[in-house]
């Protein structure tokens, strides 16, 4: 009961945020120079055609009215229709959600699998040569822009060596094939994430290992491995979880870039194309949707805290 | 001279710091027998805690600490054992409890989990067996409704209860030696006496030896059999508790005792303070280490380090002039009383 | 007299700490190198970055063109050198404006409770959107000019600074000395400006460094999407953009500007790390 209450409360508190975003996005789209109708019909359209399209799309109504009618639609689950694809915006978004989701999950998985063990190792061998190399590599990891890394990977693995393809194949074509296409983009995004996660893991482990209960564990006769992986890691993981939660934002940002370079039909590509085509309902809907995802992910991360850290319970103030 | 339960011989513990090597424990020797409580007293920084940690080799030996000397237990020198042999002793034959029970328990695991660990590790119990034994141990240390508590987390218990849990954990495998490093310092006064009474009772039952590190002379007087007084990494005096309190021999000990307000002290008299302060371990004085602060120090004290010698009936002291000082002070006391 | 000596002693110790911190030293060197590149571009570049030589387009790096030529025959090395001016210039300007704006917003939000909710909600909203999305969006809407680029970067990063300043300011506000000053009759603006603000400066400077680094990456990413510094002015990002379609045969148009971006960002990140270590009393080595 308490869990559901908490979730409902959190979701409600995100409404103001979503409202702010919706207003901001709406204004930006509609105050932009350039008429969507003209862009859609092309430069040869007649004035009557343009006017007709504007009325059809509801662009002739005053701004606030357009906003209200859009938002009321959204609240009912109807984001309008894409002018280009002639399909409901929501459908379009959901169709493109899959590839982006796969990419995000894979990138995060790659990042965590590399980062956490390395971070723990660096913490245990603090101050040694291995640790210094780790720190240097991790700073390098955050300093390499996604698109540069992506382009470099392509020029090496696709052009030079011909090992990995560019593009996208859904999981239905076979899991291995699916992964093959996602490997380079996942590494592209994963490297930056791994650097961040690894640094936090190292810092948190170092701090945890200096705590008194580690001494107690050692005094009980536990082996080094049990002390580190059983006692220290779980406690140290708490701040790491925060970083992982924040990583989702970075993954979504990075997905835009990666999908463009690697030609993946995900949400990033969708919004990019929509911006060029001035498909305004898609733009608005997509940004709102992505923001909502963000919020949802934050909620899940907070719930995970309760699982990992028993001092945090939902009924705390 | 039978063999002792635990015997420290000439223990030295050195630490590498940025400013050079520091010898926190410099040639400490004492012993502990079955069923007795040995107190190790001194101010902060005297090395009593380091000594305790050195017995179980709790410092990282790879970079941090170097041990020398012998710690004899069950006929073996603990300082020469391999790491896995040492692990078999920790929490099993020799256990340790620490000062702050709040930070000494892992906040993300239940009491039960942490309590069962030594049982499953050393006594190879199954989960069910360990669980039952854990409940028993909690009962033993006076924790009410143990079946409920065992599933709770450390932050849900009070400070006193947490220390009881630490004691349960330490006694889980019925160790021969319990090292208690300032076990009551972080607790409320009322809880302090409960915990100490508990330790006494458990000691009577199991006949284990307890090494009690403390700075509180009151605790020493009430709960301990013998005392070792430490100053700046050395033992300066060792005696049975009654002898020490009746006639402290070392000027430092005498200073400590005089610093305690007594019931019969004249209220208008000022509280005694040992002049000066404890020097840093980086700048250990040559000769007798207490000389710079000792009102009776002379040339010999400044230049030559005294040995820990037997004064009378097993009462040892590390001072060149303890007998003369004693005579002088007692004479002064008599004169003062007669005026 | 004694005060002078104390100050000199303190400065010397600070200098020692600075020199001992590897991040800080390496970062400073790299950053200074990049700044030098931007300032002395005309002296370092050996060709005119705008001069086209279509006959020699897309030629490999050689003695004449150290970094090769691009799709219009322009010398890539000179373009990369001059690009330091636009990329770093845009980044620096955006960072300075963001810093000032974020400082103001953060301080006001911390001090005036009713503003806090409003401003922080707006910040949350802006921060809820993926950074690059927001930036591309703004530039695409307003038009691809340097001015709009800076506006976009500012809008994207100000909420982050505002939040950091706000948390720092709230901590300071609760300190007793603020109460003391207020009971002496200091007015609110004076309290904010003279007492609270100076204590938020150190996290501000550290964060600003990281934002500078991010801004350079973001500008490059925007250029990559054609929404950055407009042609023909070179920026590291738009050189890569020009080379996007010919990456298979003209790797130098990606690798060299890419490496330069990495070095610059690396330098700034190291500098920021070092700065944070130096300013944070917690991380003083034992």
Task: Give structural notes.
The complex is a heterotrimer of chains A (317), B (339) and C (286). In chain A, 78% of the residues lie in helices and 0% in strands. Chain A has 317 residues and is an all-alpha fold. Chain A folds into two domains: 2-89, no CATH class; 95-312, MetI-like fold, CATH 1.10.3720. In chain A, helix 6 packs antiparallel against helix 7 and helix 6 (89-124) runs antiparallel to helix 11 (224-262). Chain B is α/β, with parallel strands linked by helices and 339 residues long. Among the domains of chain B are: 104-174, no CATH class; 248-338, no CATH class. Helices cover 37% and strands 22% of the residues of chain B. An eight-stranded mixed β-sheet of chain B has the order 6-7-8-3-9-10-12-11, with helices on both faces. The model of chain B has no long low-confidence stretch (mean pLDDT 87). Chain C is an all-alpha fold. Chain C starts with a helix and ends in a 7-residue tail after the last helix. Chains in contact: A-B, A-C. The A-C interface holds A 16-21, 24-25, 28-29, 31-33, 139-140, 142-148, 151-152, 154-155, 159, 249, 252-254, 256-257, 260, 271-272, 275-276, 283, 287, 290-291, 294-295 and C 23, 121-122, 124-126, 128-133, 136-138, 140-143, 213, 217, 220-221, 224-225, 240, 244, 247-248, 251, 254-255, 258, 261-262, 265-266, 269-270, 273.
Task: Set down the secondary structure blueprint.
The complex is a heterotrimer of chains A (317), B (339) and C (286).
Chain A: H1 2-13, H2 15-31, H3 36-41, H4 47-57, H5 63-75, H6 89-124, H7 129-143, H8 146-160, H9 175-209, H10 212-219, H11 224-262, H12 267-277, H13 280-308
Helix pairs in contact in A: 2-13, 6-7, 6-9, 6-11, 6-13, 7-9, 8-9, 8-11, 9-11, 10-11, 11-12, 11-13, 12-13
Chain B: E1 6-17, E2 20-32, E3 37-41, H1 48-55, E4 65-73, E5 76-77, H2 83-89, E6 94-97, H3 101-104, H4 111-122, H5 127-140, H6 146-149, H7 159-171, E7 177-181, H8 189-206, E8 209-214, H9 217-223, E9 226-231, E10 234-240, H10 241-246, H11 251-259, H12 299-303, E11 309-312, E12 315-317, H13 322-338
Parallel strand pairs in B: 3-8, 3-9, 6-7, 7-8
Antiparallel strand pairs in B: 1-2, 1-4, 4-5, 9-10, 10-12, 11-12
Helix pairs in contact in B: 4-5, 4-7, 5-7, 7-8
Chain C: H1 2-20, H2 22-39, H3 41-44, H4 76-111, H5 113-127, H6 131-142, H7 146-173, H8 176-183, H9 188-224, H10 236-243, H11 252-279
Helix pairs in contact in C: 2-4, 2-11, 4-5, 4-7, 4-9, 5-7, 6-7, 7-9, 9-10, 9-11, 10-11
């Amino acid at each position: 009961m308490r869990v559901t209450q908490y979730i409902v409360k959190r979701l409600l508190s995100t409404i103001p945020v979503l409202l702010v975003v919706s207003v901001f996005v709406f204004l930006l789209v509609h105050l932009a120079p350039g008429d969507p109708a003209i862009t859609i019909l092309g430069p040869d359209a007649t004035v009557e055609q343009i006017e007709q399209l504007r009325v059809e799309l509801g662009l002739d109504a005053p701004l606030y009215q357009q906003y209200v009618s859009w938002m009321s639609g959204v609240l009912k689950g109807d984001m309008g229709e894409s002018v280009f694809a002639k399909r409901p915006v929501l459908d379009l978004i959901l169709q493109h959600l899959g590839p982006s989701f796969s990419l995000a999950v894979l990138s995060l998985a790659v990042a965590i699998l590399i980062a956490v063990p390395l971070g723990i190792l660096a913490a245990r061998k603090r101050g040694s040569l291995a640790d210094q190399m780790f720190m240097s590599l991790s700073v390098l990891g955050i300093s390499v822009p996604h698109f540069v890394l992506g382009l470099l990977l392509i020029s090496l693995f696709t052009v030079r060596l011909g090992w990995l393809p560019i593009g996208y194949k859904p999981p239905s074509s076979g899991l291995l094939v699916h992964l093959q296409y996602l490997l380079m983009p996942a590494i592209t995004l994963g490297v930056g994430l791994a650097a961040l996660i690894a640094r936090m893991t190292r810092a948190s482990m170092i701090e945890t290992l200096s705590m008194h209960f580690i001494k107690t564990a050692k005094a009980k006769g536990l082996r080094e491995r049990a002390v580190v992986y059983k006692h220290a890691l779980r406690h140290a993981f708490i701040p790491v979880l925060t970083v992982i939660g924040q990583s989702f934002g970075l993954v979504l940002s990075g997905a835009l870039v990666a999908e463009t370079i690697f030609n993946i039909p995900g949400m990033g590509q969708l919004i990019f194309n929509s911006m060029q085509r001035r498909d305004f309902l898609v733009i608005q809907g997509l940004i709102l949707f992505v923001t909502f995802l963000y919020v949802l992910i934050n909620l899940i991360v907070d719930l995970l805290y309760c699982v990992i850290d028993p001092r945090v319970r939902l009924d705390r103030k | 001279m039978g063999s002792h339960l635990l015997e420290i011989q000439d223990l030295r513990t050195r630490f590498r710091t940025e400013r050079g090597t520091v010898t926190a424990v410099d040639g400490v020797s004492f012993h502990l027998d079955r069923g007795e409580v040995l107190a190790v007293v001194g101010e902060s920084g005297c090395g009593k805690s380091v000594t305790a940690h050195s017995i179980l080799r709790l410092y990282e030996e790879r970079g941090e600490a170097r041990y020398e000397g012998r710690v004899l237990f069950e006929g073996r020198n603990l300082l020469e054992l391999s790491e896995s042999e040492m692990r078999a002793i920790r929490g099993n034959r020799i256990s340790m409890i620490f000062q702050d029970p709040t930070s000494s328990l892992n906040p993300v695991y239940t009491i039960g989990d942490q309590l069962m660990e030594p049982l499953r590790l050393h006594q190879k119990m199954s989960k069910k067996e360990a669980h039952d034994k854990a409940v028993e141990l909690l009962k033993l240390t006076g924790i009410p409704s143990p079946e409920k508590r065992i599933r709770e987390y450390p932050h849900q218990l009070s400070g006193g209860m947490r220390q009881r849990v630490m004691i349960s954990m330490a006694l889980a495998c019925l160790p021969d030696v319990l090292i208690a490093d300032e076990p009551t310092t972080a607790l409320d006064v009322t809880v302090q006496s409960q915990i100490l009474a508990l330790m006494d009772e458990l000691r009577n039952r199991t006949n284990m030896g307890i090494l009690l590190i403390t700075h509180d002379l009151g605790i020493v007087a009430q709960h301990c059999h013998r005392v070792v007084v430490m100053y700046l990494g050395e033992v300066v005096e060792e005696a049975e508790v009654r002898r020490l309190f009746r006639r402290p021999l070392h000027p430092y000990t005498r200073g400590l005792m005089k610093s305690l307000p007594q019931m019969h002290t004249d209220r208008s008299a000022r509280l005694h303070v040992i002049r000066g302060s404890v020097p840093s371990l980086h700048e250990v004085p040559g000769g007798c280490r207490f000389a710079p602060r000792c009102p009776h120090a002379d040339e010999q004290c400044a230049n030559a380090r005294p040995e820990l010698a037997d004064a009378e009936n097993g009462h040892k002291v590390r001072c060149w002039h303890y007998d003369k000082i004693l005579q002088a002070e007692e004479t002064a006391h008599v004169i003062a009383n007669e005026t | 007299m004694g005060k002078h000596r104390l100050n000199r002693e303190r400065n010397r110790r600070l200098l020692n700490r600075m020199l001992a911190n590897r991040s800080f030293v390496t970062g400073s060197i790299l950053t200074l190198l990049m700044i030098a590149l931007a300032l002395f571009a005309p002296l370092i570049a050996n060709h005119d970055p705008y001069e086209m030589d279509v006959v020699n387009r897309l030629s490999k790096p050689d003695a004449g063109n150290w970094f090769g030529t691009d799709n219009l025959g322009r010398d890539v090395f000179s373009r990369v050198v001059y690009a330091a001016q636009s990329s770093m210039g845009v980044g620096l300007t955006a960072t300075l404006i963001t810093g000032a704006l974020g400082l103001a917003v953060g301080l006001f939000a911390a001090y005036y409770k009713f503003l806090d909710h409003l401003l922080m909600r707006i910040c949350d909203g802006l921060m809820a959107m993926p950074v690059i999305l927001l930036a591309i969006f703004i530039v695409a809407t307003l038009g691809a000019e340097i001015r709009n680029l800076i506006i976009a970067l500012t809008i994207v990063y100000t909420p982050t600074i505002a939040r950091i300043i706000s948390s720092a300011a709230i901590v300071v506000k609760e300190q007793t000395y603020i109460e003391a000053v207020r009971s002496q009759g200091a007015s609110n603006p004076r309290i904010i400006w003279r007492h609270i603000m100076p204590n938020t400066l150190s996290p501000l400077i550290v964060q600003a460094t990281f934002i500078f680094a991010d801004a350079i990456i973001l500008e490059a990413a925007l250029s990559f999407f054609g929404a950055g510094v407009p042609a023909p002015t070179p920026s590291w990002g738009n050189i890569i953009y020009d080379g996007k379609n010919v990456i298979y045969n003209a790797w130098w148009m990606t690798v060299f500007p890419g490496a330069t971006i990495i070095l610059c960002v690396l330098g700034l990140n190291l500098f920021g790390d070092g700065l944070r270590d130096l300013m944070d009393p917690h991380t003083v080595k034992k």
